[in-house]
Queue: 2 jobs
Job 1
Amino acid sequence: MDKNLPIVALDIQHQEAVREFLSAFEGEKLNLKVGMELFYSEGAPLIKELKASGHDIFLDLKLHDIPTTVERAMEVLTLLEVDMLTIHASGGVEMMKAAIRGLEAGTKKTGKKPLLVAVTQLTSTTISQLRDEQKIAVTMKESVTHYAELAMQAGIEGVVCSPQEVSTLKESSNNQLITVTPGIRLNKENRHDQKRIATPFEAGEVGSDFIVVGRPITESKTPVAIYNEIRSQWEAGRAAYKERN
Ligand SMILES: O=C(O)c1cc(=O)[nH]c(=O)n1[C@@H]1O[C@H](COP(=O)(O)O)[C@@H](O)[C@H]1O
């Protein structure tokens, strides 16, 4: 995946609408995220089509199940030769190690190893949900750091978190951990269901490795212009981070 480009979340249900959305980008190579709604609807053939058009693919299915099920599922997902895959860190170390075994078994067959990242706390989660619903009596940063440590213990190279936790994770992992950050908004007034948000510039400035953006682009009347605005803010933020580090 090209770190200079935002990852566009194709949270669209049907392939016709995906094709129409992508036609506005006129053959430009994109980082595309296919999540549950699109994959459950269109499956592997669409992944193949998007790859054949030259795009890099983040297949985000956030696996969370017993270790054997995750291992076997991860093996077959790896056969799709995508660039990035997700699991939930809350599934635990044993489950994450099983995911890695599945990924390695798939990689042996394809020769292409996707980056596996573990979701820490979803960007839609607030501190009160953490405390009252999940009954986790620590701060958001502590909970995210804890899940990131479990992921590293299992041998996972990257995590999904909000830009608000990136500095903490970079510090605690001695800059080893790759961070993928959704919850990106150009306009913070329109956050939808996202709670821990940042602008593309802010995400770049704190050292996020990848940003994921969906509705601000896919629901826009001018998706290409919004994508380009996000991309240039992201580049400026990354440049500011590089200058400081
Ligand atoms: O794993 C993800 O990609 C993910 C993790 C997370 O904590 N928060 C989060 O929003 N996402 C995904 O990132 C995308 C964000 O979409 P927008 O809120 O529309 O920009 C969605 O496809 C979510 O599934």
Note: The chain has one domain: 7-244.
Job 2
Amino acid sequence: MGRADHLAVELGVPSLALMENAGAGVAAQARLLLPGGAGRIARIAVLCGPGNNGGDGFVAARLLRDAGLEVRVALLGNVAALKGDAAEMAARWAGEIVPLTADAIAGADLIIDALFGAGLDRPVTGIAAEAIAALNGSGVPVLAVDVPSGLDGNTGQPLGPVVRASHTVTFFRRKPGHLLMPGRALCGGVTVHDIGSPPEVLDRIAIKTWTNGPDLWRDAFPWPRLEGHKYGRGHALVVSGAAAHTGAARLGARGALRAGAGLVTLASPENALIVNASQLTAVMLLPFSGPEGLSGILADRRKNAVLLGPALGVGEETRALVEAALAAGAATVLDADALTSFAGHQAELFAAIASIAERPVVLTPHDGEFQRLFPDLVSAAKPERARQAAARSGAVVVLKGPDTVIAAPDGRVAINDNAPPWLATAGAGDVLGGFTVGLLAQRMPPFEAASAAVWLHGAAAAAFGPGLIAEDLPDWLPQVLRGLIDPVP
Ligand SMILES: NC(=O)C1=CN([C@@H]2O[C@H](COP(=O)(O)OP(=O)(O)OC[C@H]3O[C@@H](n4cnc5c(N)ncnc54)[C@H](O)[C@@H]3O)[C@@H](O)[C@H]2O)[C@@H](O)CC1
Ligand SMILES: [K+]
């Protein structure tokens, strides 16, 4: 963001204008948040810090006062120590500035947190930390400028005491800290305000991190074509666990079919054949026994994508199944037990992936599975952990959670933010594996396929609403897909 601001200035936008626009965005949002009907003029406390975040606060304070509201400004530090644009905006405020104390918010109907933004570089301490504690305990709505003070905008991690905002106004683009947990929760709602940075600045920054959404993968999405037929839409194979562990694979298979794979087959151990057969209709069924059996099924190269992992069991047998699938040359999604089985055997997995470099592989660990496979990747920033894991493994890595991150071996990262809390439910991950293998079967490139699967998964859950169970996800996918085809291709 700092680079974007510099480039905007180089392209001829005065930095003072950027700050004026930023403050105007904050003031506009503040008016939306004010509780109405108090029968008196609303009171706003603006807490300003020593940098340009505070400068935005001074602008908002002036605009709100000029609009007739009662505004109190409290500053951390000395007015004389303010520099540059922030000093100029403090002068233009031309009103009383009280020193920041924990009492500065007394009687306020709304608090504007303009203490620290992108320039935070250490934990907040002293009087500012006391003010943050008071504000968090006040029950008064808090509007954060750019990021809640104390939050690292790059990682989504607090550096120490941190503001819990009701709403955050940020500028130009959202930053990773707005999307990654716990940052996403600490921001409350997030509004992006255009401050006049020319869009060309993005072309001059080598951006490798995006918010996940249709714009990222729409062009690669494998919509059915009139001239196509089901055999052109791939054949996904989902490997079932043993008799008492079959539901996960069926969820995956249904997900693959709904995601548009032309054909989907469930590979079932003999002892699970009856239970699988009794519950499948459009999904086909093939018995198999052990890694040789799986190799035999995948010798038919039309079966071009395979999902392994859910409820397979942890151990040598599962490792052998994974190696058989990778050796067969199908696009491969590895989830759950297929990942955990390689804890302590990572080198074998990465070597097997490297030997089929031209075939897509997607790993879909949740945090625990990730730690078992990549125990040394402990960086605070989730995108960085996923990026390093993808580079090391040679696979696209989907690091799951409320803030799922998708990373490609070439360094691209997408952060997903559309998952509702009720998506954390038994079997949801199995369906995600199914969506992913279904898109891979249709030859969608793996980073785009994984990103699309994650987004569609969140969108289907959001569309369904609370009470969701995993079975609902495939069945709500059509409604989400319908929303994407406009105009019909
Ligand atoms: N052209 C620009 O750069 C624009 C910047 N804008 C605003 O400017 C902000 C970034 O401004 P700055 O780079 O000045 O950074 P900040 O305003 O976030 O704070 C930097 C100041 O706080 C001090 N500081 C950092 N961590 C501290 C801590 N824990 N305790 C005490 N002091 C601490 C630093 O030494 C520095 O003096 C953005 O977040 C945004 O709100 C907007 O006005 C838009 C335009
Ligand atoms: K702030």
Note: The chain has a mean pLDDT of 95.
